[in-house]
Amino acid sequence: MAITLSNFVPLTSKTLILVMVLVVGVIVNGSEARPNNNNNNRPKAFFVFGDSLVDSGNNNYLATTARADAPPYGIDYPTRRPTGRFSNGYNIPDLISQRIGSPESPLPYLSPELNGQRLLVGANFASAGIGILNDTGIQFVNIIRMYQQLEYFREYQRRVSGVIGATGTKALVNQALVLITVGGNDFVNNYYLVPYSARSRQYPLPQYVKYLISEYQKLLQRLYDLGARRVLVTGTGPLGCVPSELAQRGRNGQCATDLQRAASLFNPQLESMLQQLNRKLGRDVFIAVNTAQMHNNFVSNPAQFGFVTSKVACCGQGPYNGIGLCTPLSNLCPNRNLYAFWDAFHPSEKANRLIVEEIVSGSTTYMKPMNLSTILALDATT
């Protein structure tokens, strides 16, 4: 009905106050019903799955020996304190977070600080010691195996729905970046953990690798079903060349041949499986990250990258500092930037930076079918 002078009724002061209250109520309630879910000004959410290479502290909250919560871990982190990262400083998820413009790294999912608006940054579900298989890392007892990490991801989405609604949550997850790093422990802490291990008696190595790839495909399909649409999938590094394996299995400083063979079988089959999955899905969801080649660059020619050694760990004891854990009583190098490996298994922060540089801008030798810069450019237009 049009408003004219003939149907206009003067308002008393009491009526006017009532109308103002109702209008304000409509505005407030409307804003609550329609939260600002505009993602245009917010960096991508970032989700991390996997093992100790990408664990940012979930194991701190678990009764397990697979922990990095004591010095000198974190000696080069901004706080100079251990955080649960298996690094002297930043790990790969931290450095990727910085490159995608995130205000902070995704918190460990078990952190009590992960709530409210911080949920929208993403979450890190990784747990040191885990593998593709549920029986990998059984010696560590309380760790978050892959099936549980994916269940936590589902739980996370329910929690976020309470903050931005179901539609906003679906968009946040679909538009997110995901990193998954798993597989190395299935060799180091399973197949080759002890002589004549249960898995090595069950499968010859080529058949074991095929089994791992088939199980990994199921995990990645589940990740897709949970909404992931941009997933960086790393292969294993040169497993036989880490200080631990040089100390225990290598001969005269040479990489352990059995573990090198395992990596050489696993990585190409992983890349092939990712290509098949993408063809099946009709889109480039899964990005193969050739971390084996990235590692091999500085393992084979450390001086080219400013390292004095790629054999001796900065922190540890025994041959190559490769025996046992990094502890306050371990040998500790004075300059971590000169060492490719921080401890017996994990790269130094500087090595992690070299790896992330290739993830961001590397050629198809390192990133197939595209690098992270290309992903960000493509997704910015959609």
From TrEMBL:
Q: Which UniProt keywords apply?
A: Hydrolase, Lipid degradation, Lipid metabolism, Signal
For this UniProt entry, which residues form the secretion signal? 1-33
Gene Ontology MF: a single term: hydrolase activity, acting on ester bonds
- What Pfam families does the database record attribute to this sequence? Lipase_GDSL (PF00657)
Known InterPro entries for this protein? GDSL, GDSL_Est/Lipase, SGNH_hydro_sf, SGNH_plant_lipase-like
A Gene Ontology annotation in the biological process aspect, one of them, is: lipid catabolic process
Query: Which family does the record claim for this protein?
Result: Belongs to the 'GDSL' lipolytic enzyme family.
Q: What is this protein called?
A: GDSL esterase/lipase
